[in-house]
């Protein structure tokens, strides 16, 4: 990517840098206050359910719904939301306080945000055993130094590893609930909800987006397509469902195929293990699905991981390919800017130290950056260093240092912690 000389980049003056530091400190204080308020709100919502009173009411559990609904409706008049919303908040609060007390404590101490707490509780809710939940919570809270969006797949992976039932068993039950629903909306619109296998959903999303990008790129300059990329993708999906073919204008659509990145342990491919595989951007998939995808792939890469860190160390292919790009796709998965989750397949491959300044075209000097953060790196006060082993060091315009580990390495660390012997209590 062509860049401007260093002197031409946007940067902060010393005065501006100090002003931004002051603003950041204010936001940090505000975040702590929000966390405290969220903890108080959760405590009040949980108290409102008053399980100690409700459980003393004789009769079937279904009868408990009457006092709960009455209480929710009463609180809704104060919060100025629907009683359904209050019911949901009450249930979420009770779940956190009763089953994830360490998460609630961390929230009350402002060590995590409400969104982090929600990710931990949502993904761990399926764990039915108290001891398993405690172990899950201990591990998950070690990885909260990231965004809630990045924490959620980590929590999902931990819960998956600790779940006593295999994913194959659970997937078979869940797959029986697949279906398609139409939900009417306002202004003559409606939502189409399709519940299917996660790997198939990833393929649908990738293929329709690839077609949409081809349609947008194929528009002549004098007739630029006014639709957004999301609108084109929706139109492509509609065409495919109704006509069986992408009728939107564009060239080369028939040659586009879905590209799904799936990490499959070798023992799963051979049938020697029933652990879950991992689809980037989606999460766990059952071993049967992983083996089918591996069997149908025209090309696939064998990936070697460092046994201690989980970082990919080498990739070899059965047919010649761009090995470095394959390596980076496997290592990075997403844009490497802190907090960004844009797929690596929608990113630029950036030289951390510019090639023009002697930076080598080597995996320890390369990383995925989406276009927006690629521009930010080259033309603002943000600085990056590639520390090797998939670890990036980012320095903010105000001088704060952040370390960004590759998603597979973080996930590997979480799973290693889940596999380790639990501490004695």
Mean pLDDT over the full residue set: 80
What is the tally of helical segments?
16
Contiguous runs where pLDDT drops below 50 for at least 5 residues: 1-7, 60-64, 249-256, 316-321
Number of strands: 12
Strand order of the largest sheet: 3-4-5
Instruction: Note the main sheet.
Output: 3 strands, antiparallel
Structural class: alpha+beta
Radius of gyration: 25 Å
Distance between the termini: 55 Å
Percent range for helical residues? Answer: 40-55%
Give the overall shape: globular
Taken in chain order, the helices and strands follow as HHHHHHHHHEEHHEHEEHEEHEEHEEEH
Portion in beta strands: 5-15%
How many domains would you count in the coordinates?
3
């Amino acid at each position: 990517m062509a860049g401007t000389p260093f002197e031409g980049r946007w940067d902060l003056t010393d005065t501006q840098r100090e002003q931004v530091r002051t603003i950041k400190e204010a936001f940090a204080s505000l975040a702590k206050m929000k966390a405290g308020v969220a903890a108080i709100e959760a405590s009040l919502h949980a108290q409102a359910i008053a399980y100690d009173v409700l459980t003393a009411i004789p009769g079937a559990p279904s009868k408990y719904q009457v006092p709960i609904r009455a209480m929710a409706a009463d609180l809704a008049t104060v919060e100025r939301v629907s009683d359904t919303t209050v019911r949901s908040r009450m249930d979420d609060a009770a779940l956190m306080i009763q089953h994830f007390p360490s998460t609630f404590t961390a929230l009350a101490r402002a060590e995590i945000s409400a969104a982090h707490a929600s990710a931990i509780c949502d993904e761990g809710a399926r764990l039915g055993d108290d001891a398993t939940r405690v172990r899950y919570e201990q591990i998950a809270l070690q990885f909260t130094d990231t965004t809630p969006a990045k924490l959620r797949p980590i929590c999902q992976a931990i819960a998956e590893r600790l779940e006593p039932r295999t994913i194959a068993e659970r997937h078979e039950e869940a797959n029986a609930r697949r279906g398609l629903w139409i939900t009417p909306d306002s202004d003559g619109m409606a939502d189409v909800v399709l519940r299917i296998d996660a790997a198939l959903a990833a393929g649908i999303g990738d293929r329709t987006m690839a077609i949409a990008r081809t349609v947008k790129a194929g528009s002549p300059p004098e007739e630029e397509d006014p639709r957004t990329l999301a609108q084109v993708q929706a139109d492509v999906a509609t065409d495919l469902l109704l006509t069986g073919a992408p009728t939107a204008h564009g060239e080369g659509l028939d040659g586009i195929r879905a590209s799904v990145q799936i990490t499959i342990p070798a023992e799963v491919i051979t049938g020697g293990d029933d652990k879950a595989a991992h689809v980037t951007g989606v999460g766990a998939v059952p071993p049967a699905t992983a083996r089918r995808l591996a069997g149908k792939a025209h090309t696939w890469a064998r990936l070697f991981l460092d046994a201690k860190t989980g970082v990919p160390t080498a990739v070899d292919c059965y047919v010649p390919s761009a090995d470095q790009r394959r390596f980076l796709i496997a290592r990075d998965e997403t844009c490497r800017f802190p907090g960004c989750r844009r797929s690596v397949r929608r990113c630029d491959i950036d030289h951390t130290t510019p090639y023009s300044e002697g930076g080598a075209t080597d995996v320890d000097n390369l990383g995925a950056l989406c276009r927006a953060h690629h521009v930010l790196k080259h033309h603002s006060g943000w600085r990056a260093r590639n520390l090797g082993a998939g670890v990036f060091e980012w320095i903010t315009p105000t001088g704060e240092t952040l370390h960004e580990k590759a998603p597979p390495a973080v996930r590997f660390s979480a799973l290693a912690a889940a596999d380790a012997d639990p501490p004695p209590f």
